[in-house]
Amino acid sequence: MKFGLRFRGGLLATLFMFGAAVVAPVGAVLVSSAALAQTVQSISVEGNRRVEVETIRSYFKPGPGGRLDQAAIDDGLKALIETGLFQDVKINRGAGGQIIVSVVENPVIGRVAFEGNKKIKDEQLTAEVQSKARGTFSRAMVQSDTLRIAEIYRRSGRYDVRVTPEIIEQPNNRVDLIFTVDEGAKTSVKSIDFVGNSAFSSYRLRDVIKTRESNLLSFLASGDIYDPDRVEADRDLIRRFYLKHGFADVQVVAALTEYDPAKKGFLVTFKIEEGAQYRVGAVDFRSSIPNFDPTTLRGYSRVGVGSLYNVEAVEKSVEEMQIEASRRGYAFAVVRPGGDRNFEAHTVSVVFNVDEGPRTYIERINVRGNTRTRDYVIRREFDLSEGDAYNRALVDRAERRLKNLDYFKSVKITTEPGSSSDRVILIVDLEEKSTGDFSVSGGYSTTDGALAEVSISERNLLGRGLFAKAAVTYGQYARGYSLSFVEPYLLDYRVALGLDLYQRTQLSNSYISYGTKTLGFSPRLGFSLREDLSLQLRYSIYQQQITLPYYLTNCNNLLSSGAFNPSPAYANTTQGAADIATSGYNFAATNGLGCYSDGEASLPVRKELAGGKTLTSAVGYSLTYNTLDNNKNPTDGLLIDVRQDFAGVGGDVSYLKTVLDAKYYAPLVSDIVALAHVQGGILNKIGNTELRMLDHFQMGPNLVRGFAPNGIGPRDINPYDTQDALGGTKYWGASLELQMPFWFLPKEVGLKGAVYADAGGLYDYQGPTTWAATGELTTPKNSSCTPSTIYPSATPGTCTGLIYDDSKVIRSSVGVGLIWQSPFGPLRFDYAVPLTKGKYDRTQEFRFGGGTTF
Q1: What local confidence, expressed as pLDDT, does residue 577 receive?
Q2: What whole-number distance in Å separates Cα of residue 118 and Cα of residue 127?
Q3: How far is CA 740 from CA 192, 213, 675, 743, in A?
Q4: Which residues are CB-neighbours of 107 under 8 A, at least 6 positions away?
Q5: Which of 678, 690, 679, 681 is closest to 644 using CA atoms?
Q6: Three-class DSSP category at 210
Q7: Neighbouring C-beta atoms of residue 692, cutoff 10 Å
Q8: Which sign does the torsion angle of CA 354, 358, 363, 365 carry?
Q9: What is the reported pLDDT for 731?
Q10: Residue 265: per-residue pLDDT
Q11: What's the pLDDT at 854?
Q12: Spatial separation of the C-alpha atoms in residues 600 and 591, rounded to whole Å
């Protein structure tokens, strides 16, 4: 960074001259000791235009008897210089020992302007500089502002910035201040290295920090811009990562940064001293509070004997124990963890000490910096209020909750002394950020084809902490809209109320012969039982309707002869009834037998079509256990989701659907992550209401990769039908996957490879198999008739029930995948080869899916 000063006009030509002495500023003349006997009235002032005479005289404090000594005059001179109001101050001796104070006032700033700044707006720079329009011009202030502007550019990664302050002289002792900025090119991080790490590779540690190396796609993000504060924060992230994995002695000694002129960027090196890895040798509980049994807190400990020593687990244990002690009436109890290290055995004996803390109360909670967010939105994140006992664990939890809201750039809670020794004031300092999003998303997958979405959302609606989102989707095979609203604190309780209104249209494609139209509404309530356990209760009501292409419902296979031969499904439509009446066709006598030779949708599909719109009303819940280290790119932890829905609270259908999905991530050697995935579901019939085909589970690559969507399980095998997938009431699946980075590529590229093996099954179709009520022929399902004898030779009433395959074959596959955490969003490519499959299953070896927001 370089900056300089240049001037326009002659009046201020000496304003920025350097070399002034510390004791006697340029132009200041100190009176001699002969002037010691002057009175306040004997001080005269010259040259002042805006500052009053009495104001200037007030800086000279007389001693006893109203007389000035040399020290008082010196102090007054220094005080006047320090006000920044004067360009020059001189003190001379007049006739009769009179003291004359001659001043030259600093000009007034007419305007402050910026030139050459393209990357940072005028409004942001104006807010940062101290020099303001209509304020007093000060050389020191301008120098400070110049450095501040340069620092702002350095934070945005532009270290070649040059800032030059210019002064334009105006009449009436006024000046215009102009900062000319030469922004220079962006200065990025060219390399990130780690020294001293052996337990974790540099590739793995780059996942931990926020700073990123520059690459071809860096223009889509800002993590590669050099920021010294971010680098310093990365040191703490690395340290906490090691402490979480048992390295109790770890030290991140330094974060060395060096600018490389040849690469025009920074080289960042983190120096680490890992130390030994420790396990927990013993866990003990002690208390100095009378009548308090510390062992009752054992259930709140997340530290187990034999496990890796984990500082985060210790901290969470302390927090939960301290909160529990407070609930039991020990409001001032403090839980302090201690640890004795066995350097030879590499173990740590953890001791939780429960002591009586200082009896301190919260006098007041002051919130600062929230210009948009309402005070109550912030205060409700606290589990304590004014007058409560001060509990540091609860304060830390409130700070963490405020950060998780994602409304603020920064959150910091500090304490100040209150009105008495047993009172504290909590100061909540916030810096707000934008919480609205407008996005245009696009993507393509082998299932849904091309897809685009336009959405607008607000996480902090009206500053009240409400969430709202509206989205419109339009794609090759999927279209619709959705409206969502969430009130996170229903009736001031920590219960989230969500409302969803949606409409979806799924068009027929190469995987299904029919389309569906769904219009629904779903309110839900969410509860956080613990930090890793949540419960959601929901109610869903939606209307669903089958749609079919015309060529699957007209069934006019005898067009060449002029005959009209409609199918039962077509005959039950308004258009079909009109066509029959017009043609004089005797539908009852023939039952539309000849229609099947040109292909028809499967019986359950035709029955849904004839049934029209169906209303489903269901209540359900989800229980989620989540210990993942990162929800977007997990490498360690467990995610279990249990869902259950009961349909039959009104509506046209009844069933009980139960689903389990569990994923376990575990880091292996050399940055390889293992993923074990288990899933299963069961659909139970309730009462006498027949299960619809649409309520069945439909499976494909979501269960076993290498199969097409709806490619697994029971299927209509009538050769004259479209052979639609019917779905099943039971399914299970298991998968083992190894994810590994491409070590020869930069970490910032975000590419990983995967190898996997899948197995699963879908079976037990329980939907409609006959349709006698509408003229459909009624042979029982899977009768002894063979497809070759069914049509067109069959006579009414024989061999015409639904013929389908429901074999309990285990489907399995192996494959490889490419995972890309791209700036365009997550993308995944899979190539899987089925090993075992059902006779009528449909395969799809290559699969691609992904999307973006731009």
Answers
A1: 64
A2: 16
A3: 20, 20, 11, 9
A4: 12, 87, 136, 137, 169, 173, 174, 175
A5: 681
A6: coil
A7: 21
A8: negative
A9: 97
A10: 83
A11: 36
A12: 14
**C-alpha dihedral sign at 205, 207, 211, 214:** positive
Q: Which amino acid is at 805?
A: D
CB 357 within 8 A of CB 333: yes
How far apart (Å, rounded) are the C-alpha atoms in residues 825 and 819? 11
Give every CB contact of residue 560 below 8 A, 6+ residues apart in sequence. none
Residues of the chain with pLDDT under 70: 1-41, 63-68, 84, 95-97, 215-223, 441-448, 550-600, 719-721, 748, 771-801, 823-825, 850-854
Residue 784 pLDDT: 39
pLDDT of residue 533: 92
Write down the number of H helices and E strands in the chain. Answer: 13, 37
Contacts of 375 (CB under 8 A, 6+ apart): 367
Position 461: which residue type?
A: L
Neighbours of 686 (CB within 10 A): 13
Residue with the two structure tokens 């040191």: 235
The Cα–Cα gap between 851 and 440 comes to 10
Token representation of residue 188: 């990025």
CB-based burial, 5-44: b 16+ in 10 Å, e otherwise:
eebeeeebeebeeeeeeeeebeebeebeeebbebeeebbe
Structure tokens at 251: 């030290």
Binning the chain into helix, strand and coil, the percentages to the nearest 5 are 20, 40, 40
Amino acid letter, 703 = L
Of 591, 618, 453, nearest in space to 521 by CA: 618
The structure tokens 């902490």 sit at: 465
Cis peptide before 792 (omega within 30 of 0): yes
Q: Which residue's structure tokens are 């949540």?
A: 534
End-to-end Cα spacing for the chain: 33
Other CB atoms within 10 A of residue 839 CB: 9
Q: Cβ distance 177 to 138 under 8 Å?
A: no
Helix/strand/coil (H/E/C) assignment for every residue in 128-192 = HCCCCCCCECCHHHHHHHHHHHHHHHHHCCCCCCEEEEEEEEECCCEEEEEEEEECCCCCEEEEE
Pick the closest to residue 743 from 204, 148, 225 (CA basis). Answer: 204
DSSP 711-751: -BS-EE--TTB---B--BSEEEEEEEEEEEE-TTS-GGG-E
DSSP-derived pairing of the beta strands 751-763 and 811-822: antiparallel
Q: pLDDT tens, 122-157? A: 888 888 888 888 888 887 888 899 999 988 887 777
Instruction: List, as one string, the DSSP characters of 765-816.
Output: --S----GGGT---PPTT-S--GGGTTTTPPTTSS-S--EE---PPEEEEEE
Q: Tell me, what's the pLDDT at 85?
A: 74
At 270 the three-state DSSP class reads strand
Q: In the structure encoding, which two tokens stand for residue 354, read together? A: 């429960």
Residue type, 685: K
Residues 744, 547: contact at Cβ < 8 Å? no
